[in-house]
Write a structure and sequence with these properties.
GO biological process, one term: inositol trisphosphate metabolic process
Pfam family, one: Ins134_P3_kin_N
Largest sheet: 5 strands, mixed
Subunit structure: Monomer.
Function: Kinase that can phosphorylate various inositol polyphosphate such as Ins(3,4,5,6)P4 or Ins(1,3,4)P3.
Bound molecules: adenosine-5'-triphosphate, (1S,3S,4S)-1,3,4-triphospho-MYO-inositol, magnesium ion
CATH architecture of the largest domain: 2-Layer Sandwich
Distance between the termini: 20 Å
Shape: globular
Number of helices: 9
Strand content: 15-25%
Keywords: ATP-binding, Kinase, Magnesium, Metal-binding, Nucleotide-binding, Transferase
Number of domains: 2
Radius of gyration: 22 Å
């Protein structure tokens, strides 16, 4: 067990973060740095252009980087420091970087939530006959066309709402075509930090009336991007259609996703269809690794608590160094169930 930390003590643990500059400026706010420091955790930027071995020592690493060079660095680091938790496993993160695999986990959940019917179009040639493709996948208009790759680029968020057959659409492959579900224009974004889940509401696309699908004077498809990135104005709270899903349900979905994905830091987008025929039905449409946590209320405490949970059971690196010892000589053991090493996650033995 780690000794108690007092606010006056200097930080005992060092958490290294490897994030793109935009993510650093959005998430590593002074309020987070101050709260973490107050609780004994120093946050230090990793310079990904330099060898990790020349930096640190780190007690915990968190990361969201897309390049292969970083992956090789992490693997080497994990081999040298098997006791230092790396959050999260690159292989587990990879599943979220491809919309063809991102939502596979949902079908294994034991909660009533699903994914709208969808089909992956890997290249334009594979879609030579769009009608046949849609019929085979039993997809019905309207659809949303989403780029397959999630790579941090603006293009990976370039979506199209497709009302009817659109000749040029499939030339944009590789993409996912997903059925659009009417959901009252409100989306539930659930931020997951370890075992905490926080649901916020965002505005979303309005419902599509049936007549729009047959309106030949209007465009067959329209582009949009980043539609749900900002908080919903708080004035409509009373509207029943906007009511948050039950907290217990949100927690259960979050727990199932965390276990199924083997990840600790992500958010997911959930929408609710309300119909007389089916009642309320929930759909998960997107899962994002290491999202914009600063948009989540209380994120500073949530992240700091999470870091401390991952660190508990480890001793700070600087306390382990005996005279003449190198930085990399001591493998530290994590308390069972509290921290998860990179290789345990890679091999799928550990679950969040
Ligand atoms: N199947 C769907 N039915 C209805 N609306 C949808 C559907 N899929 C996506 N949307 C709407 O389109 C928006 C963008 O889709 P999605 O979340 O997949 O894209 P994204 O660019 O990955 O988003 P983020 O910024 O959260 O990463 C959603 O926030 C939601 O408003
Ligand atoms: O930067 P890329 O890799 O494109 O990923 C984005 C996610 O797709 C978005 O979901 C994040 O915003 P939200 O936290 O509002 O979901 C968004 O967070 P940001 O507000 O920090 O940019 C990003 O994490
Ligand atoms: Mg989204
Ligand atoms: Mg996304």
């Amino acid at each position: 067990m780690a000794p108690e930390l007092s606010p006056s003590s200097s930080p005992r643990y060092t958490v290294g973060y490897a994030l793109l500059p935009e993510k650093v400026s959005s998430v590593v706010q002074p309020s987070l740095v101050a709260l973490a420091a107050d609780r004994g955790v120093r946050l230090v930027a990793v310079d990904v252009s330099r060898p990790l071995a020349d930096q640190g020592p780190f007690d915990l690493l968190v990361h969201k980087m897309y390049d292969r060079g970083w992956r090789a660095q992490l693997e080497e680091f994990a081999a040298r420091h098997p006791g230092v938790p790396v959050v999260d496993s690159p292989a587990a993160i990879d599943r979220l970087l491809d919309r063809a695999t991102m939502l596979d986990v949902v079908s294994g959940l034991r909660v009533p939530v699903s994914v709208p019917p969808q089909v992956v179009v890997s290249d334009a040639a594979a879609a030579a006959d769009p009608d046949e493709l849609l019929a085979r996948a039993a997809l019905r208009f309207p659809l949303i066309a989403k780029p397959l790759a999630v790579d941090g680029s603006a293009e990976s968020h370039d979506m199209r709402l497709v009302y009817r057959r659109d000749g040029g659409l499939l030339l944009r492959a590789p993409l996912v075509l997903q059925e659009f579900v009417n959901h009252g224009g409100v989306l539930f974004k659930v931020y997951v930090v370890g075992d905490r889940a926080t649901c916020v509401r965002r505005s979303s696309l309005p419902d599509v009336p049936a007549h729009r699908l047959h309106d030949l004077d209007s465009e067959p498809s329209v582009p949009f991007a980043n539609i749900s990135n900002q908080p919903l104005p708080p004035d409509d709270d009373a509207a029943d259609d906007m009511a948050m899903p039950a907290a217990g349900f949100v927690d259960e979905v979050a727990r199932g996703l965390r276990r199924g994905l083997g990840l600790h830091l992500f958010n997911f987008d959930m929408i609710r269809e309300r119909s007389e025929e089916h009642g309320d039905r929930y759909f998960i449409i997107d899962i994002n690794y290491f999202p914009g946590y600063a948009k989540m209320p209380g994120y500073e405490a949530a992240l700091t608590d999470f870091f401390l949970e991952m660190l508990r059971g480890t001793r700070p690196v600087h306390e382990q160094l005996g005279p003449g010892s190198g930085l990399d000589m001591e493998a530290r053991k994590l308390e069972p169930g509290l921290g998860i090493g990179l290789r345990e996650l890679e091999s799928g033995r550990a679950q969040a």
